[in-house]
Amino acid sequence: MQFDLRRLADIVRQAARQEILPRFQQVRDLDVRAKADATDLVTAADEATERFLKREIESIMPGVLFVGEESAGQDPGLLHRLDHAETAVVVDPLDGTANFVAGMPLFGVMAAVVRQGKPIAGVIYDPMSDDWVMAESGGGAFLVRPEGTERRLAVSTSAPLSEMTGYVSTDFLPPAVKPGILARLGKARMFSSHRCAAHMYRAFVSGHGHFVMLDRLTPWDHLAGTLIATEAGAYVACLDGSPYSSTKRTGALLTATDPNSWQTLAREIFTPGG
């Protein structure tokens, strides 16, 4: 199935401008509800954006399997279909919902085109800056401004562990390993969490930081970001060393500037007993 990544990016931008931005910092319009727990939220903006994306994407890619975070929550069978789909589009309609609800401008929209479990194109849009990072497999990664200017992206150069900075989510780590990882993160110079995978990946692929570790393998959080990171020169693998694909559901994912940095981070920080 053919697709046009620029058209997909335009649809993502339209969805955010129509369904997300008018609701930002408008408490009466949010309709906030908890999903798994009090930190896992969904709003009217998430749902309306996903409906917009589904309608428009299916209009330009008839017959494609559409998998959104909210629709997958309602129909878990979608993830099984994703594992076997020839072509699918996977979207996170509003990544960073907790930030959005808090009125913090750190949220984004992500979409990835997936073939047989592997991302082949992806876009991460920031509604506040009105720009996006995107990549197609084998074609490099780019930051695109709304007026059409582009800048090729490249990850930072490698650094010793003591000088590394990175982005880390530990919310879903098993209690038995979480304290050790948090303690060992002191070996790096600095780490932080934006509570938003979209912005962690965007910062990393723009050369800000040396690693990203995310501890929940929901496909809409990673398919676009890992492809864009790879095209920007990064090394990506699950913490057990296996390649990442949409079929991975458990474990954690580490993205680093290069294979040697990945090995150092896995050994010294993220592997229990390191």
Quick rundown:
By secondary structure, the chain is an alpha+beta fold. It contains 9 helices and 14 strands. It has a 7-stranded mixed beta sheet with strand order 3-4-5-6-7-8-9, sandwiched between helices.
Structure description:
This protein has 9 helices and 14 strands. By secondary structure, the chain is an alpha+beta fold. It folds into 2 domains: 5-152, Fructose-1,6-Bisphosphatase, Chain A, domain 1 (2-Layer Sandwich); 161-270, D-Maltodextrin-Binding Protein, domain 2. The strands form 3 sheets. Strands 3-4-5-6-7-8-9 form a 7-stranded mixed beta sheet, with helices on both faces. The radius of gyration is 18 Å and the shape is globular. The mean pLDDT is 93.
